[in-house]
Amino acid sequence: MAEEEGEKEVTLLGTWSSPFVLRVKWALRIKGVEYTYVEEDLRNKSPQLLQYNPVHKKVPVLVHRGRAIAESSVILHYIDEAWPHHPLLPHHPYEKAMARFWCKFEDDKLSPPLWRVLTTQAEEQREAQASAIESLGLLENELEGKKFFGGQTIGLVDVWFGALAYIIPIYEEITGLKLVEQRKLPRLCRWMEEFLSSPAVEGTLPPKDMLLPRYAAMREAFLAKAKRPEQQ
Amino acid sequence: MAEEEGEKEVTLLGTWSSPFVLRVKWALRIKGVEYTYVEEDLRNKSPQLLQYNPVHKKVPVLVHRGRAIAESSVILHYIDEAWPHHPLLPHHPYEKAMARFWCKFEDDKLSPPLWRVLTTQAEEQREAQASAIESLGLLENELEGKKFFGGQTIGLVDVWFGALAYIIPIYEEITGLKLVEQRKLPRLCRWMEEFLSSPAVEGTLPPKDMLLPRYAAMREAFLAKAKRPEQQ
Questions:
Q1: ipTM computed for the complex
Q2: Residues of the signal sequence (chains A, B) (predicted)?
């Protein structure tokens, strides 16, 4: 059937390990949109990727009826607007604004310290850990009385943070530092379990035994790089 | 009348020199929304600012019917959704996605090199200049056949980039480096003139004789800071 239609309607260009690509996969699954997935090798980018995302040359790229959209935040909004059933964003402008605020919060106040927890050590790492835990505490408050950030169902903020539910325990395992303690962040712990076992996510997560050595190698590379100037 | 209503409906907390606050002022003017403007002193933040934006403690903050919204990107979307006449975003999901893409492009690929042009020197500054000019070239292409990024009228992307139309010449004056050359970027030059003289912008720009020494002092402070490790 797809061959008869010529170009399949929706194509996602991604890489298996990208949390940004996962966001798009989850949003498409929530909407029930069928798509062709194309795995990209970022060390040897395909002509298709370079053609569809000439500015950033990155994944994810969503191609819908031959028109390409890049950047996960832009793609998620597009998916929510092009397929309006099962909305990811709430209806009211103020509620929408709050959802967007928390997505931006993740970009600005949570992802950067988490990354530093993975890629630094000693004092710098301890400061990053404290900063990440402070941000996670604000998310804990947001979950008061709610199953998901989106309320009773998964919404934009859940999809946005979702990859962290999977990656934070990997960072904890590699660094030996605790970030999400059941005792201190019980709602967030429950949310992580609920989200990761939800139908939207089931079967989409990259194998932990492939992701863990990948992040461990990144940590080693960053620590080695940070050491170099001292040795000169 | 406003006193009888009790709390005025729309309040904007800002500082005179912030390009992020300018974006919000322009959007409100395009929509014809009346508001109370409150100038904040960021060295001595008001209880109101700390109450309304406890996470970031930054301006702009828009308060609408007692509910606060922070982050200029979130505020602009809110304004466009709460006052839907004179839309800032186009109607079609794909066109919307393109507008959001270019706003994110400014955040990721234009603002950072422009800032480095202002705050560094020598090789680092020359690289930043080349990078900024490359990004500006992509914007030049976007303006083909259009008066504004939004088409015949000012849209989200115009409001997003708008402050740069004013700030780039100030950076050029301080650093002695050319960024927007009429010969190479004629559409962007015309857009800068058109935008800055548009009714949305008229009378909102901070006085150049106050902004220029402010940015010049920032440059000096960054250069002095960069020198310090070498002196130790």
A1: 0.93
A2: none
